[in-house]
Amino acid sequence: MSPSDAPSLHAHAPESRGGGPQALAGAGLEPLLSAPSESAQRFAELMPRVVRRALVDADAADIDQAIADGGFVLNDSTVVMRHNADSDQIEFFCDVGLPEAHARELAYRAALEINLCRQYPGITLGVHPESGRMVATIAIHSLLVADDEVCLNTLELLTRQVGQLRASRVIALQDEA
User: Fold this and answer.
1) What mean pLDDT comes out for the span 66-91?
2) For residue 49, what pLDDT is reported?
3) For residues 54 and 67, what is the distance between their CA atoms, to the nearest angstrom?
4) What is the per-residue pLDDT for 4?
5) Is residue 44 very low, low, confident or very high in pLDDT (cuts 50, 70, 90)?
6) CATH level 3 topology of 35-168
7) pTM of the full predicted structure?
8) Smallest Cα–Cα separation from 158: which of 147, 170, 166?
9) 119 SS3 class
10) Quick check: 97 and 174 in contact, CB under 8 A?
């Protein structure tokens, strides 16, 4: 094989090869192109099952409330799970806590460093725009969420990482009663 016969390693826009979204549709990728509405339906079916499995010891009213608003307490952490239709991702959020008022800049700087160095693999830290609370997030494209186990394992990972982060005291958080 000569170098000119080798496959190119350079990325090209589909349009530059006579393609584009329309060409993808003919390539057997129709399910990927129509996935967001189907993903929303799958998530609507998935969410109640995940909540029931995560809150196996909770009473029915608490389970119904968690299903309705997408939030619940797991492993001593408040978590929220939702489908983002714009990005077609399942998003997981976990409350870390409220940074100390006098150390807010240090908390934000620590969060940026944690994100940059991936000190808590899989999570990204941010600040809730309204409450100012530090939040850890994970987002997974809906095509990768094959079953309840993916969500349960993701929630377990997220809450463990947040527990370790809190215990490390790298970010000074206000004491909460």
Assistant:
1) 94
2) 94
3) 11
4) 44
5) very high
6) Yope Regulator; Chain: A, (3.30.1460)
7) 0.77
8) 166
9) coil
10) yes
